[in-house]
Amino acid sequence: MHIISALCIRPQAGAAIAFGLLIMEDKISENAFVMPGDWLGVEEEFSSADNTFVDSDGAIRAAIIGNVHIGNGKISVRNPNWERRKVERGMLVLGTVTDDMKSVAFIKLDTIRMNGIEYFAIKDGKIVAERPGGPRGRPFGRDREGGRPERPAPSGKQCGVGDVIIAKVLFDDPDVYTLGIRDREAGVVYSECPLCGTHMAVEGPGMLSCPECKDREPKKVSALYGKPEEIKRLFGK
Ligand SMILES: [Zn+2]
After folding, report:
1. What's the pLDDT tens digit per position in 136-161?
2. Rounded CA gap, 41 and 77, in Å?
3. Cα 223 to middle of ligand 1, angstroms
């Protein structure tokens, strides 16, 4: 009897392991429990829906802890207590300037939280030096208060490497978010002196200055510069 039991158990255990590998590599089942970053499928199979994202290799991955739902060619992850979305066009975001080239600055975007929803960026943002008519010559929309169209800002990107900025997502392009910093809250919210590293102070509209070495840097200064509590209220709810 003992020998028969042993023979029965071993093939079953082997089959379970093989089946487990098969699930991980080839197929994910409805209602499977997944963790952030878990592989769910490929874009040829499904379109990436709620709480999932597509990585640079075209694999669909879970953005949150939850259960898989598959339907109508879409794959999503559900969790009644946790919602996570991709950064979308029109919203304000927070990030740090990582590169400053002649006509474009690149921004690493933070994960932010607004009204109980966590927003994550799957790509970097860029700010294009402004020309009359705005980036790429497209006309600007109306500002958030409704009413007046946004005024063209003076030329230049108006932020530098290391600056923490608030920006609005103007366009959601395939490999980058195009950002604008014209809104009242938008612009630099934290900046260090490029010469001595001291925290810059606001000298006036569009101008930061160093309390130590007196260096002056023209920047688009946010209305929330030096107000971490207000920034937290905006992005930490
Ligand atoms: Zn300085």
Report:
1. 444 444 444 444 444 444 446 689 99
2. 12
3. 22
